[in-house]
Specification:
CATH topology of the largest domain: Aspartate Aminotransferase, domain 1
CATH class of the largest domain: Alpha Beta
Strand content: 5-15%
Structural class: alpha+beta
Radius of gyration: 22 Å
Number of strands: 6
Order of helices and strands: HHHEEEEHEEH
Largest sheet: 6 strands, antiparallel
Number of helices: 5
Amino acid sequence: MSHLFQQKLWPTGDLIRLIAALLRRIAAASVLILLLPAVVWAQTLDLPQRNGPRPTTTGSVPHVQIDPQTDPVLTEQLLQAVGAFKGIVLAQTRIGFPGSVGFNLDQSVPLAKPGSIVVGREIAHIHPDGSLHAALDPALAEKAIALGWAEAHPWAKRRVGWDGFVMIFTPTNPNELSVVIALLEESYRYITGTSPTD
């Protein structure tokens, strides 16, 4: 290879530019390969259509559900399920209104999408009425909204990375609870790039 440089067949500057261009293409392909499973998973999550009318919310901040059918047993089951996620610490939220519980990642959990977190390491929070705010993959957020499980937070389009920031409606029965937990698992995967149960 050194004879190429000596004979000026490959001028050093051209070779460096060629290598740099190849490395940029490899890096771009690597990012796509790493993100593809998350995008495919978000688009293939089997979300059913939510039964009943879409809950009413304030549609502004504070963003709350109006007259939800809260079941304390379902709320406790949801807290137990999320509390079992790897590296999650349940604590007073830093952004929701009083009485809300934040789902915070401890420092041992890496962040793949730190710009999608509203504050600190809180990936979601649950309000006393059982409704939640969470960051979802934008494609999954659109799907959850279309199927009646969520609505976009009023601030969702105000900051880069918040495209998937939604209110997930209060679960009113065990079937709805299982869907809400699945959405929270997806929020965890989206924010961390890892499974909540590994």
